[in-house]
Structure formats: C-alpha cells, structure tokens
Write a structure and sequence with these properties.
Elements (H helix, E strand, L loop, with lengths): L5 H6 L5 H8 L3 H11 L15 H8 L4 H8 L23 E3 H15 L5 E6 L6 E5 L6 H15 L5 E5 L17 H4 L9 E6 L5 H10 L5 E6 L4 H11 L7 E6 L22 E5 L8 H5 L7 E5 L6 H8 L8 E5 L4 H10 L6
Parallel strand pairs: 1-4, 4-5, 5-6, 6-7, 7-8, 8-9, 9-10
Antiparallel strand pairs: 2-3
Helix pairs in contact: 2-3, 4-6, 9-10
Protein name: 25374_t:CDS:1
C-alpha cells in the first residue's frame, strides 16, 4: 500500500484500540502511520480502566527535558524509577483531543502509584468493625509537580490540538471546579487554544460556566460545540446563549440534558445568531414547550443533519414547522421518541435507513 494512502486508511480505525495496536506490529511503515492516530486521543483509550490512567503520563514524562526529569526522579522511590523511559516517539506532538478531566485523573493516579498510595485510606475502624472513617487522597504527594511539568509539556509541544473537552467529572471519583482550570492561565498567554475547532462542555455543576465564559476570547476558531449537561436552569440557558453569541460561523450544535428534575418546561439556549451557518443540530432529552428552538431550527437553510432524540414538547404545530420548512441541503433526519405520525413520516422520507 502506498505510504501516503496508509495513514488515511488507518485513520478509520481511530476508535478501535485493538486494531491500532495490531497495526503497530506489522512493520516500521505501519507503525509510523498508526502511532499518530493512536496518540491523537490517548486519554480515550484508558478511560474504561482507572488503573491504566498513569500509562500516558509516564510516557509523556519520558519526553521532559533532562533537568525536569531528574527533579521528578529525585522525589520518587527507587523501585518506581523504571516507569520513566525515553520514548520511541515524541508522543505529545500527536495530541489532537485534550480532555482536561482525563488528564487530571491520569495525573492523580500516576502520583498515587509513584507514592504507593491507595485511593482510599482507612484511618479508623471501630472495635466491632462495623464503622470505618475513610480519608480520600484527593491530592497525593507529587501530584502538583507532575501536573505542572506535563501540562507545560503539552502547552509547549502539542501543536495539533483541535478538540478540547471541559468537564467537571465523568462519574469516576473527584470533581473539577472552575479553579482547577486556572492552570490554563499559561495557555492563554500563548497560542495553544487558538487552533481549537471542536469544543465539548460536560458539567453537572454550575461552577464550570465561569470557564466557559472566557472560551470565545481564546478559542476564536471553534466551529463545533457539544453540551452534555445534568440539568439546565433558565440562568444556564441565558449564560450559554450569551457565550454562543460570541462565536462566529458555528457549524455544529449538540445539546444533551441528562436530568430535568421537577422542571418539565425549560428554557433552552438560543441559536439565533448562527442560523445562517449551522449544518448539524442534535438535541437530546430536552423540552421544546417553553422555548423557540424549533422556530430557530427551521430558519437554518444550510442544515444537512438534524437529530431530535427522546425530547418532549414537539407538538403537532411545531412538528408542522419542520415538515413545511425549506431545507434544500438536508440529508439526515433522525427522530427517537413519541412524536406525531406526520413528522415521523417526513423523517422517513429523508432518511429511511433509520426507520427500517
């Protein structure tokens, strides 16, 4: 296979870790083509198994300058120094998707391993063994040193990053708050965030909106936005709308709300400033009853893909707005949920493959 075609073929395996590792074993050419793909999103390949989190950090640490590496080696037990080896490639240069929560989690697990710490220490057990007081190692020794050095390494050498995930947690342990993103002060002084084109914002708690508020000023080239929210209050919808208005020419807007609580009629962010540029809209677990989002969607004449998944409030009147709208470029319509027969038939006429 021609050397220029091979990387394009392997790119299709980007989500298949097992196949990518098999490509590494074929020969040198295949290895050189597979490594950039495997390491474009390294934290995705360890997130299913918490004990694997330190892998990426130890490999990145091998790329540190000699003085910085020696500083870390001087602080860790002798039996742990074997984790630090000079890597075959400078893997940090291949990074494209930077998930900051996964990064921090990996740092914490690496620090615990280097210090021989368990995630939870039992500090007191009652005489009858029925009661235990636990101490969580939220910030084990070495965490600060590892965090600073590896983050600076990423800021200085990762020139291909185009996808940034802001999150407070993924259901695995600790919670990140707005202050945890203060380290990005260094990035704001450089050009690390400027190439970002895809932004994913995942939060259960309102504090991260402080982080989101400064994103447009330092990520001016974002074209694809994805929100995964635990709930959405009226104030959250307004905050997101205000920030959305600062971006230019958004192509993709995705919104998923996990839990609405007692509020069955919710305000949703407005996409009015992007009706002339949006080509993809995905709305999931939302309620259209108290907002004008459907009215805004029907004005998106350049829409190519529309997905409305498990939503409420798509009344017959609002469904008719979609059916009668002029979408000259629409190719994909996917509907999941209890919707009127007319809008389902309309969707089937455009994308029958989803309704077989």
């Amino acid at each position: 296979m021609h050397c220029h075609i091979l990387p394009l073929v392997i790119e299709f395996l980007s989500k298949d870790k097992k196949s990518l590792h098999a490509c590494l074993q074929v020969n040198r050419l295949w290895c050189q083509a597979a490594v950039p793909v495997l390491w474009s999103d390294p934290f995705r390949h360890v997130n299913d198994h918490k004990e694997n989190f330190p892998e990426v950090i130890f490999i990145y640490l091998g790329s540190l300058e000699k003085s910085a590496k020696q500083k870390i080696l001087s602080k860790i037990p002798a039996d742990k120094k074997s984790h630090f080896k000079t890597p075959t490639f400078e893997y940090v240069k291949f990074l494209k998707h930077f998930n900051y929560w996964m990064f921090v989690s990996s740092i914490k697990e690496a620090a615990r391993m280097l210090n021989n710490l368990e995630e939870v220490n039992v500090v007191y057990t009652s005489p009858d063994s029925k009661t235990q007081f636990l101490y969580f190692n939220d910030k084990p020794p070495l965490e600060g040193v590892l965090h600073t050095h590896v983050l600076n390494l990423i800021f200085n050498r990762s020139k291909r990053v185009n996808y940034f995930t802001i999150s407070d947690h993924f259901g695995l342990g600790h919670i990140l708050e707005a202050d945890d993103y203060n380290q990005f002060g260094h990035a704001l002084d450089g050009d690390f965030l400027e190439p970002i084109k895809k932004l994913s914002f995942c939060t259960d708690y309102g504090s991260l909106y402080k982080v989101f508020s400064w994103i447009p000023d330092f990520c001016p080239n974002v074209k694809h936005l994805k929100f995964r929210l635990k709930t959405i209050r009226d104030s959250d919808a307004k905050t997101i709308t205000d920030v959305l208005s600062k971006f230019k020419d958004l192509r993709t807007f995705k919104l998923k709300v996990y839990y609405r609580g007692q509020q069955q009629e919710e305000n949703l962010p407005s996409i009015a400033n992007h009706i002339h540029s949006l080509t993809t809209i995905v709305i999931r677990h939302c309620n259209f009853k108290k907002n004008n989002l459907i009215q805004e969607i029907v004005q998106c004449k350049g829409l190519v893909e529309l997905k409305i998944l498990l939503c409420k409030g798509l009344t017959v009147d609002k469904a008719n707005l979609l059916i009668n709208a002029d979408f000259p470029m629409l190719e994909i319509v996917e509907l999941w949920g209890d919707y009127c027969k007319e809008v389902v038939n309309w969707a089937k006429s455009i994308s029958p493959q989803f309704y077989d």
